[in-house]
Amino acid sequence: MARKQGSHSEITGPKVQAAALQLIAQHGFAAVTMRQIAAQVGVQAGALYNYTPDKQSLLFELMRTHMTDLLAAWDSADIQGDPFTRLEGFTRFHIRFHLPRADQVFVAYMELRNLSPENFARIEAMRHRYEDALEEILRAGEAKGVFEMDDTRVTTMALIGMLTGLSHWYRTDGRLPTAKIEAIYWDLVRKAVAA
Amino acid sequence: MARKQGSHSEITGPKVQAAALQLIAQHGFAAVTMRQIAAQVGVQAGALYNYTPDKQSLLFELMRTHMTDLLAAWDSADIQGDPFTRLEGFTRFHIRFHLPRADQVFVAYMELRNLSPENFARIEAMRHRYEDALEEILRAGEAKGVFEMDDTRVTTMALIGMLTGLSHWYRTDGRLPTAKIEAIYWDLVRKAVAA
DNA sequence: TTTGCAAATGAACGGTTGTTCAGTTAGACG
DNA sequence: CGTCTAACTGAACAACCGTTCATTTGCAAA
């Protein structure tokens, strides 16, 4: 048997990505086998190699896609205005983008050590660009006197850590809707850097 | 060859834990082999089974030890006083305890999914006790009117996330000493929940 | 209807995994 | 000095790993 009815490259390809993402988020990259991914797609293990040169590239593509999506979404969000408004924009954007992508966040932050050095560097560079977007807002606010903090870079990392940590415990079926979470976190961020 | 000079159970045992901790933090639980751990200890793979019934138990013991140490250290820190003072105490305690334990933090937060369900529940319960310590301080401060926040539980998780995220990027050989980091983070925490 | 080829099979590859265990060794004890 | 035993070796086990590839399949174009 081969090529079942209606089965095409444009269908199986995304299925492979989706299956890999879900399984890696659940069990970790090293713990997931190519045969598990294939089974979830409904295909034999060998067929996966029509869509990825190897397992490592599969992981890298997941992370690269996530970071590319993040940077593209941030760019097209086009947050403008005074630093205070932009900080609120960043905070709400971050939460809105990350909360519905729990699996991607998990993989992107937990599996960095399973990347080859050059792939690691490429992902890290993209993450850095995102961090710099926040840092720039904070510096602009400091310059205008609307924000006040001890160390801008450390504060950047602290705020990103707080926002990203949210993805690790928040459940979409939980007590609080996204909008409420947004409000709570924006309140914390706003006060933390207030002049 | 067997039982080299001065080699005893009380020496090899901790060596196994230390090697497992370091390797798992670096590569992840599933990616580390028993033979790698054994090599780092300076022993054959079979000898590890004098110190752990299996690989899974080795991971669990690392996490259990970390959480037990954390709770014991918190209890004996005996932070007292008004809520404001206790919040500062918690913040500084958390940073002081976690910063020198980067490997433990990494493993304890990243490898939860590699635990069996019952082992996961035991670790989660201990983590919950620690979170509750912070939540209690925040509630006490709210009752006295010195703290003000939208949702106490979410704020608890947000602050813990911010503090824990620190361990993921801070390097002891970096630009800032622990004391300075403590001051920066305490500043952020204090302002974030200020009335 | 025939042909061409993308897509998938399924078996096979060498290597590695966690774990077991009979046998070896070295230090402690009488 | 001989005996005992905790500690360790080294080889073996079946199972499973990522990856390859000759072969088969079924859709699309001619």
List the helices and strands and how they pair.
Two copies of one chain form a homodimer.
Chain A: H1 9-27, H2 34-41, H3 55-77, H4 83-98, H5 102-110, H6 117-144, H7 152-169, H8 178-193
Helix pairs in contact in A: 1-2, 1-5, 3-5, 3-6, 4-6, 4-7, 4-8, 6-7
The first copy, chain A, binds a DNA duplex (30 and 30 nucleotides) through loops.
Can you offer a commentary on this structure?
Two copies of one chain form a homodimer. Chain A is mostly helical and 195 residues long. Chain A has helices at 9-27, 34-41, 55-77, 83-98, 102-110, 117-144, 152-169, 178-193. Chain A folds into two domains: 1-52, Homeodomain-like (Arc Repressor Mutant, subunit A, Orthogonal Bundle), CATH 1.10.10; 55-193, Orthogonal Bundle (Tetracycline Repressor, domain 2). Helix content of chain A is 70%, strand content 0%. In chain A, helix 1 packs across helix 5 and helix 3 packs parallel to helix 6 (117-144). The termini of chain A are far apart. The interface between A and B is large, with 38 and 39 residues. The structure holds a DNA duplex (30 and 30 nucleotides).
Distance between the termini of chain A: 68 Å
Low-confidence stretches of chain A: none
Shape of chain A: elongated
Biggest contact: A-B, 38 and 39 residues
CATH homologous superfamily identity of the largest domain in chain A: Tetracycline Repressor, domain 2
Number of strands of chain A: 0
CATH C-level class of the largest domain in chain A: Mainly Alpha
Mean pLDDT of chain A: 94
Class per helix and strand makeup of chain A: mainly alpha
Strand composition percent of chain A: under 5%
Oligomer type? homodimer
Helix content of chain A: over 70%
Characterize the largest beta sheet of chain A: strand count, sense, and whether it forms a barrel. none
CATH topology of the largest domain in chain A: Tetracycline Repressor, domain 2
